[in-house]
Specification:
The complex is a heterodimer. Chain A is of the alpha/beta class. Chain A is built from ten helices and ten strands. Chain A has helices at residues 43-49, 80-86, 102-113, 118-131, 135-138, 151-164, 181-194, 207-213, 237-242, 247-253; strands at residues 5-14, 17-27, 32-36, 60-68, 71-72, 87-90, 169-173, 199-203, 216-222, 229-236. Chain A is globular, with a radius of gyration of 18 Å. The mean pLDDT of chain A is 90. Chain B contains 14 helices and no strands. Classes of the chains: A alpha/beta, B mainly alpha. At the A-B interface, helix 2, helix 3 and helix 6 of A face helix 10 and helix 11 of B. Bound molecules: adenosine-5'-triphosphate and magnesium ion. Residues 43-44, 92, 173 of chain A line the site of magnesium ion.
C-alpha cells in the first residue's frame, strides 16, 4: 500500500555540521519522485532521513517532521525498526551479505524479521528476482554466494532484496550508477511497474533518467562548499525540464552549472 | 616477449628500446644464495669458528652484499635496491623459520623416544619419577579439561565484551572497559594465579582443583579474545550493517546474523590463539591445580595435572627416563595445540564469507 510522505522543516546534522537545511516537501503516493543536484548537496542525507537511517551514522541528528500518511516518523513512540520495514532502501554501492547465498540474500529481510511462511519463500524470492530482472542470470546458482556476482548483478540483487519485504515506500540512492544501459533500462521499467504499488523516491545524477522515470523532480543545491544543502524547487518533471521557475535549476539541468 | 621482432627474418638481435634494459637470468638469486652459503661455510671452516650461527650470519650478509653488487653492475641502481629489499625479506624469512624448524625437529626427535599408545593412555600411578615407564594420560586429560573450562568462561565473556565495545560502546563506560582490557593483557600469569589463590582458595577455602586453574587461565585468555574479536568486528564493512538495518532487521539480529557470521573466521582464529597461549601456562597451574600422578577426571575436586606442569616436573627430576618423558609430553602439548588450530581453521574456512564465482 503506497503512502504519502509529507516533510516539513527538516534539517539533518552530522555532529555539528548541518548537511541539509529546513526542507519541506510532499511526495505523492504511487508516483516516482526524483532528486537531482550537485554532489554533496545532501540528497543521500535527505533520503536517509526518510527511513530513519540517518541516525545510524555516529553523530547523525534530525530536526523537523516527516509524516508518513498521518504518522510522524520522528514521533516519540515510533520504532525506527518498524519504520525501516515500511520504507525500504537501495544503496548507492551494492552491498549483498557476503556470508549468504543469492537465495538467502533475497530471503534475508523476511527470514531475519521472522515474518514469513516457509512455503511462500521460494515464490517470493523468485518473484523478487524476476522483478529485479536478475532471475534468468542466477536461477541455476541460487545457492552460490551473492558476492560472486558482477557489480551490476549485485545491485539488482540488492533491489530484489529490498522489494522482497514489500515495503510501502522504496528509496533508491543512485541505484543504476553501477549498471549497464540494458540493466538500467530494466530497472527503470521495474520502477515504472513498482510505482503502481509503492511510493518511490530515486536519487540520480542522470538527467535523462530523471526525465524518463519520474513524475516529479526535486532540485537540491548548496550555496557554497561547507554550507547546508537546500531544496530549490519541486515540481512536475515536465515543468522542471522545460520551464523551471528558478534560474539555478535551469542552469544545472542545461549543464551551465558553475 | 619479443615474438613480433623474432618473426621478422631481417632482425639480427632484438633491438633495445628505451623501456628495456639488461636483465639478470632468473636463476641468479638461487646462484647467489648457493655461493653465499658455500662461502659462509668455507670461511667459517677456514677461520675455525665454532658457532654455526656465525657461519649463517656471514652467509646472510654475503647474500645481501653479493646481490647488491651483481645487480648494480648488470641492471642498474634502482633494480639493485629492489633486489636488496627482496633479499632482505628472504633473509628475515629464513631467520624466522630456522628457530621454528629446529624447535620442531628437536622436540620430535627427542619426544618420539617414548611416545606411544601406552604413554598416551597411562598415568604415572605407581611409577617412580626416576624410573622408565608411566605416561601422560592424566596430564593430557587435565589440560583438556582446564583449557576447555577456561575457554567456556572466557570466550563468551570476551566475545560479548567486544560486541559491546564495537557495536554499542562509545561512551565513558566503553573507554573504561577498553582501559581495563588493556591492563588485563599485561597481567603476568603468576599474578592471575595468585589472585585466584588469594580469593578462591584462601578466602573461600576451596582446595586445589582444575576449576581453580581454569579460572586463572580464563583471566589470561579474556583480554586476548576481546582484543582480537574487536579488531575483526571493526573490519566488517558498515554498509553491511546498514543494508541489514534498512531491511527493518533489529540491531541485535543484525549483529547476530550479519556481523558475526561475516567476522567468524577471524574471531575463531583469535580465540584459538588465546587457547594456544593458555595451554602452555605453567605458573597458575602449579599454584592452583597442584599436580598429581593419578588420573583425576573431576576438574571440580582434588588436584589434577596438566601437560606443561608435567613437562616441568619430569624435567626437574633429571634422570634419562624422566627427561625423555618430558620431551614426549612437550611433543604431545605441541601436537594438541596444532590439532586445535587445524580444527579451528577448518571451521573458519567452512564458515567464512565465500567469494567463489
Ligand atoms: N558520514 C558523514 N559524516 C560527516 N559528514 C557527512 C557524512 N556523510 C555525508 N556528509 C556530508 O554531508 C553533506 C551531504 O552529503 P551527501 O552524501 O548527502 O551528498 P549527496 O548529495 O548524496 O552527494 P552525491 O551526489 O555525491 O552522492 C556533504 O557535505 C558531506 O560531506
Ligand atoms: Mg549520495
Amino acid at each position: 500500500m503506497a503512502k504519502r510522505i509529507d516533510v516539513s522543516g527538516l534539517s539533518a546534522f552530522y555532529g555539528a555540521h548541518k548537511a541539509i537545511d529546513d526542507i519541506s516537501m510532499t511526495v505523492e503516493p504511487r508516483s516516482v519522485t526524483a532528486f537531482i543536484g550537485p554532489s554533496g548537496c545532501g540528497k543521500s542525507t535527505f533520503l536517509r532521513t526518510l527511513n530513519r537511517m540517518h541516525e545510524v551514522t555516529p553523530g547523525g541528528r534530525v530536526e523537523g517532521k516527516v509524516m508518513l500518511d498521518d504518522e510522524n516518523l520522528y514521533g516519540s513512540n515510533v520504532d525506527p525498526v518498524a519504520v525501516r520495514r515500511t520504507v525500504g532502501m537501495v544503496f548507492q554501492r551494492p552491498n549483498p551479505f557476503p556470508t549468504m547465498s543469492i537465495f538467502d540474500n533475497v530471503a534475508a529481510g523476511l527470514r531475519l524479521n521472522g515474518k514469513y511462511k516457509k512455503s511462500a519463500l521460494n515464490d517470493i524470492v523468485e518473484k523478487s528476482l524476476k522483478g529485479a530482472n536478475l532471475w534468468n542470470e542466477v536461477k541455476d546458482r541460487l545457492n552460490k554466494p551473492g558476492s560472486g556476482l558482477s557489480g551490476g548483478q549485485q545491485q539488482r540483487l540488492c533491489i530484489a532484496r529490498a522489494i522482497a519485504v514489500e515495503p510501502d515506500v522504496l528509496l533508491m540512492d543512485e541505484p543504476c550508477s553501477a549498471l549497464d544501459p540494458i540493466s538500467t533500462l530494466a530497472i527503470e521499467d521495474l520502477i515504472g511497474e513498482l510505482k503502481e504499488r509503492f511510493t518511490i523516491v530515486i536519487v540520480t545524477h542522470n538527467m535523462q533518467q530523471a526525465a524518463r522515470v519520474s513524475d516529479r523532480t526535486a532540485f537540491f543545491n548548496l550555496a557554497a562548499v561547507g554550507q547546508p544543502g537546500k531544496l530549490i524547487e519541486l515540481d512536475d518533471t515536465e515543468r522542471i525540464f522545460s520551464n523551471p521557475s528558478v534560474q539555478a535549476t535551469e542552469d544545472y539541468i542545461s549543464g551551465r552549472f558553475g | 616477449m619479443s615474438h613480433a621482432i623474432q618473426e621478422r627474418p631481417v632482425s639480427v638481435a632484438p633491438r633495445r628500446g628505451p623501456l628495456s634494459h639488461a636483465r639478470l637470468p632468473r636463476w641468479t638469486p638461487a646462484a647467489v644464495a648457493a655461493f653465499s652459503i658455500a662461502a659462509g661455510i668455507g670461511i667459517g671452516l677456514a677461520a675455525g669458528w665454532h658457532s654455526k650461527v656465525q657461519w649463517g650470519m656471514l652467509a646472510a650478509l654475503l647474500f645481501v652484499l653479493t646481490t647488491y653488487a651483481v645487480t648494480t653492475k648488470v641492471e642498474g641502481a634502482r633494480q639493485a635496491k629492489d633486489r636488496v629489499a627482496t633479499s632482505l625479506v628472504w633473509v628475515c624469512f629464513v631467520l624466522a623459520v630456522v628457530p621454528l624448524l629446529s624447535l620442531a625437529w628437536v622436540t620430535i626427535s627427542k619426544g618420539m623416544a617414548v611416545l606411544d599408545v601406552y604413554f598416551l593412555t597411562h598415568s604415572m600411578n605407581g611409577v617412580l619419577d626416576t624410573e622408565a615407564g608411566g605416561g601422560v594420560y592424566h596430564a593430557l586429560l587435565g589440560t583438556i579439561e582446564q583449557v576447555g573450562i577456561a575457554t567456556l568462561i572466557a570466550a563468551p565473556i570476551g566475545l560479548l565484551t567486544a560486541v559491546y565495545l564495537v557495536e554499542y560502546g562509545g561512551g565513558k563506560l566503553a573507554q573504561a572497559v577498553t582501559f581495563f582490557v588493556d591492563v588485563m593483557t599485561g597481567i603476568p600469569s603468576i599474578v592471575a594465579g595468585l589472585f585466584i589463590l588469594a580469593t578462591w582458595n584462601l578466602m573461600l577455602g576451596f582446595g586445589p582443583s582444575g576449576f581453580a586453574g581454569a579460572m586463572a587461565l580464563a583471566i589470561l585468555m579474556m583480554p586476548v579474545v576481546v582484543r582480537s574479536t574487536e579488531e575483526m568486528l571493526k573490519l566488517v564493512p558498515n554498509e553491511l550493517r546498514e543494508a541489514s538495518l534498512a531491511l527493518g532487521i533489529p540491531k541485535w539480529r543484525t549483529i547476530l546474523k550479519v556481523v558475526l557470521p561475516t567476522a567468524i573466521g577471524g574471531i575463531t582464529t583469535g580465540v584459538m590463539l588465546a587457547v594456544a597461549r593458555i595451554t602452555g601456562e605453567t605458573a597458575p597451574v602449579l599454584l592452583l591445580v597442584f599436580g598429581t600422578k593419578l588420573i583425576n577426571p573431576n576438574p571440580f575436586e582434588g588436584a589434577q595435572s596438566s601437560l606443561p606442569l608435567y613437562v616441568y616436573e619430569q624435567y626437574a627430576v633429571g634422570t634419562d627416563a624422566s627427561v625423555a618423558r618430558a620431551w614426549a609430553a612437550a611433543l604431545v602439548l605441541i601436537a594438541f595445540v596444532m590439532i586445535l588450530n587445524l580444527v579451528a581453521r577448518g571451521i573458519a574456512r567452512w564458515k567464512a564469507p565465500k567469494t567463489g564465482r
